[in-house]
Amino acid sequence: MAEVFRMQRRVAWRDTDWVGVICYPNIFHYFDDCENEFFRAHGVSKVDLYHKDEMFFPRIAANAEFKSMLKYDDEITTELRVYRLGEKSVGFAYRCYRDADGVLAAEGSTLLCLVNRQGTSIPIPRRLRDFFELYLEDAARDGSPAQDASAGAAGGGERQTS
After folding, report:
1. Does residue 105 form part of some domain?
2. Residue 93 · residue 107 · CB < 8 Å
3. Does 148 reside within a domain?
4. Which helix (H) or strand (E) holds 93?
5. Taking the chain, what is the end-to-end CA distance rounded to the nearest angstrom?
6. Hey, is 85 helix, strand or coil?
7. Phi, psi of 154 (to 5 degrees)
8. CATH number, domain with residue 119
9. Could you tell me the CA-to-CA distances from 102 to 9, 68, 93, 99, 143 in Å, in that order?
């Protein structure tokens, strides 16, 4: 069974609209923060990836769907799983739960393609694949195609579910 990475935080005032509800584009900041902590927890610095290894992961697709309101000061847990792992791409699936009642408040995904500084897609190195595979959802592991995103993002934002 795949592991799940979790990160806890509070909804910040700066991320809400005038009535104290999270403003929709800001959920992507929460997804990104979770992704950054995921890399850090596995000893990988995105800054070092770029400056030392001369590679980085631009997003080629992103989506989000709200299920319930997130309000200022709500404590939330964001979960990250790998829903897709290709030769040159990785897809992360996110779920944000409100801690007070356990309700799923938002979910979404991002699809990233590893590129060199010139913007050419390159294979994901083994050291990164090793920890991505720990979080690879069972549906993706059991015969679902792990498509390569280097050909484009068509269909890339869709989540595979088990």
Report:
1. yes
2. yes
3. no
4. strand 89-98
5. 11
6. strand
7. -55, 120
8. 3.10.129.10
9. 14, 11, 18, 5, 31
DSSP 30-84: HHHHHHHHHHHHTT--HHHHHHTT-EE--EEEEEEEESS--BTT-EEEEEEEEEE
Domain range for 12 is 5-142
Q: Which two tokens stand for residue 74?
A: 């709500």
- State how many domains the chain has: 1
Tens of pLDDT, residue by residue, the chain (162 residues): 889 999 999 999 999 999 999 999 999 999 999 999 999 999 999 999 999 999 999 999 999 999 999 999 999 999 999 999 999 999 999 999 999 999 999 999 999 999 999 999 999 999 999 999 999 988 776 544 444 333 333 333 333 333
